[in-house]
Design goal:
This protein is mostly helical and 153 residues long.
Length: 153
């Protein structure tokens, strides 16, 4: 098994004391732990917004505003799935799977016609959820294939 920069096996999850404490039964987050997690979530949302804005601007600039919303939904769903499975980010297969699932979106965006009308978020949520689940399942399948001892969490 290949060793990473910190001397532990690449792809292995090293739980911090904070994570272990949060996973233990009966633990309530302190205000400091809560504010740290809250700040991390806000920063992630800010980074996501900064990644999605240029994509929307690009589609509006090339005159394909109908593709902006589906592309942004796919980007957000993929980013959330990647963030959830971030412990595998040192593995080459992880990025190959993410790229393969992302590339599968291109034919959908190119060949399907999307409405430019307003659609309630409640109707868009199943598509985002399906996109997220596809990414998570693909990553878990690859993890079981390439790292059988670690995927059985």
């Amino acid at each position: 098994m290949r060793l990473g920069r910190r001397g532990r096996p690449v792809g292995s999850r090293k739980w911090s004391p904070l994570d272990l404490q949060l996973l233990s039964r009966g633990h309530r987050m302190t205000d400091d732990e809560y504010s740290l997690r809250q700040r991390q979530s806000y920063y992630f949302a800010l980074k996501l917004g900064l990644c999605v804005a240029p994509v929307m601007a690009l589609f509006f600039a090339i005159g394909r505003a109908d593709l902006a919303r589906p592309a942004c939904i796919a980007i957000v769903a993929a980013a959330v799935a990647v963030r959830q499975k971030w412990e595998y980010h040192h593995q080459q297969w992880f990025w190959v799977v993410v790229a393969a699932v992302a590339l599968m979106h291109l034919p959908i965006l190119i060949f399907f016609v999307f409405s430019n009308r307003w659609i309630p978020a409640l109707l868009l949520m199943p598509f985002a959820l399906a996109d997220y689940v596809i990414m998570i399942v693909a990553i878990r399948f690859a993890a079981k294939r390439f790292e059988p001892q670690e995927a059985d969490e």
